Amino acid sequence: MPTPPFHHRFLLPLLFMTSAVAGCGPDSVESSLPVAESGPDASADKAPDGKAPADKAASVFPNEPAGFTTVLINHADQIPATITWSTASAGVWRMFPTPPAVEVSSSTAPCSPPGSWRATYWKGMLAGRGPVTVFSQGTSGKAPESRRWYVRVCIRVGRNGGYENQATGTKLGFLSISDDPAKERCAVIPRIKGDAVQAVKSTWMAEVTFECGGMLPTILFRQLQNLPTGRPIKSDVWQVHEWLVDVGDINQANGSFKWWIDGKLVVDRQGQKFRSSAVTHGVYRWRWSPTWGGVQGVRTRDDDYFVDDVYISGYGKP
Question: Does the reported pTM lie above 0.90?
Answer without folding.
Answer: no
